[in-house]
Amino acid sequence: MFFTFALISLVSSAVAQDLGVPLSWRELNNSRPLAERITIAQGAINEMTAQLDASTGEFNGLGYWQSGNVFSVLANQDHLAGTTTNQALVQNNLKLVFGLWPHYDQFGVSHYLRCVRYNDDAMWWAQAALYGYRAHGDAQLLANALDVWTHVTGYVITPADAAAGNQPNKDFAIESTCNGTRRQLPSLGRAPDRGLNPVATMAGGVFWRPTTDDTSVNSITTGLYITLSAFLAEYTGNATYTNAAILSANWIKSHNINADDLVLDTVDAADCTTSPATWLFTYNTGKYIEGLSVLAAVTGDSQWSTLMINILNAGVKTTVWQGTNGVITEGASPTSDNDGVGFKAVFIRGLHEAFTRSPNNSALQILIHSYGDVQYNALLELAANGSTYSSSWLGPPQAFTSWGQLAALDVLTSNIDTN
Ligand SMILES: *[C@@H]1O[C@H](CO)[C@@H](O)[C@H](O)[C@H]1NC(C)=O
Ligand SMILES: *[C@@H]1O[C@H](CO)[C@@H](O)[C@H](O)[C@H]1NC(C)=O
Ligand SMILES: *[C@@H]1O[C@H](CO)[C@@H](O)[C@H](O)[C@H]1NC(C)=O
Ligand SMILES: *[C@@H]1O[C@H](CO)[C@@H](O)[C@H](O)[C@H]1NC(C)=O
Ligand SMILES: *[C@@H]1O[C@H](CO)[C@@H](O)[C@H](O)[C@H]1NC(C)=O
Question: What domain range includes position 268?
Fold first, then answer.
C-alpha cells in the first residue's frame, strides 16, 4: 500500500513543507509481512532481556537511563503487536526500580566519581511507566509516572520564577529572558545588552539536574517533561498537565531550535550562554517531535503539529546524523557503550508517535514509513548477526553488544506499525 503512495507523493507533496522522500535513500520499502516483523522485533527483545540483572532491574552493559529505555520498547512491543509477552517483565521491573530509587531518581556515580542525579534519568523511567500503562493498563505505573512528574515539576522555571529571577530549588540568580539577551556585568557600566532578537522568557525550561548549583536547562529534560505532561493530560484530562506541556513546548520553541529546524542542546539559566551550535543529537529532536505529537492531539492546536512536521522533516533529511542514503550514522560504537549510542532509538520512537498521531497526513506517514524502512533494511542486511545487531547500522555485523541491541530495538518494534 505504501509503495504506491510513495510514488504518488514524490510528485505531489509540495504544499507548505516538501515532505517528499529523497530518492537518494537506500531501500525505502520492505515486504516482510506483519507476523514476521513482530517475530523479528520480539526475537531482538529476547536477546536483550537475557542481560537483565534481576536485583537492579537494569541490563548488563547499559547505563541507567538506557535500561529505562529498554522497558519502553518492551511495553511498546506489546502495545503494537497486541501481545502480553513482555507484560510481567515491564510491570515487575518498573515497580522494582521505583522501590529502589524514589521518583526513579538514581544517585549514580559520574565519570568524575561524584554521586549525581539527573532529572532526565528519572523521566526516562517514568516514560517507560507511561508506555507500560498504555500497553497493559496497570494503574500503579501511571501513579509512578505522576510521582516523577510532580518531583520534576520542582525544577521547572515558572513564569513567576522567571519574573523574579530566582528558582526555589536553585541557589543562584536566573536570567528572566534569554535568546538575544546576555546580561552585562554592572561593572562594565552598560545597560543590559538585549541583543538583536526579541527576548524570550525562560519560563518552561526544565533544569537538567536537581543539584542546587547546576545551571543547565536542556532540551532533553524539557522534551521529556513536555511528553510526560502531554501523556498525563491525555490520560487524566487534567488541564494542569496540558498547560505544563504548552509552557515547556514554548521554551524549546523560542530558545533551542536552530535555523535548520533541528533542536539544540543546552541553555545556561545563570547567564544565557548556550551549548555549541554543533551539539546536535537525534534524541533532542526526537523527544520534541514525540511531545509535540501528543500535545497537538491533546489540544487540537495545529501550531504544534505544524511545528512538529517542520522539525521532523528537517530531522530525517539533515546530513548531521545520516548520509544521503538516509541511514543514521550517529552513535555507531562497536567496542564500547556511551550515551550517544542510545540517542537514535529515542528519535525513531518519536517518529513512530508522530506517525500514529497523523492518520490524515499521508505525505508525512509515507516519509516516516520510508525513513523507518531505510533503517530497518540497513539493520537486517548490513548490521545483523542472527537476532543481534551492531550499533553501526551500516555494518559490519559483530558479536552481541547490549548497546547495539538497545539502539536497534526501537527500529524493529516501530516498524511493526510504520512499515
Ligand atoms: C521493495 O519492493 C519491491 C517491489 O515490490 C520488492 O521487490 C523488494 O523486495 C522490496 N524490498 C524489500 C527490502 O523488501
Ligand atoms: C490536576 O493535577 C494537579 C497536578 O498533579 C493536581 O494538583 C490537581 O489536584 C489535579 N486536579 C484534579 C481535578 O484532579
Ligand atoms: C531566538 O528567537 C528568534 C526570534 O524569535 C528565533 O527565530 C530563533 O529561532 C531563536 N533562537 C533559538 C536558538 O531558538
Ligand atoms: C482524520 O480525519 C477524519 C475524517 O475527516 C476525522 O474524523 C478525524 O478526527 C481525523 N483525525 C485526526 C487525528 O485529525
Ligand atoms: C556473531 O555472533 C556470534 C556469537 O556472539 C559470534 O561468535 C560471531 O563472531 C558473530 N559473527 C560476526 C560476523 O561477528
Answer: 155-320
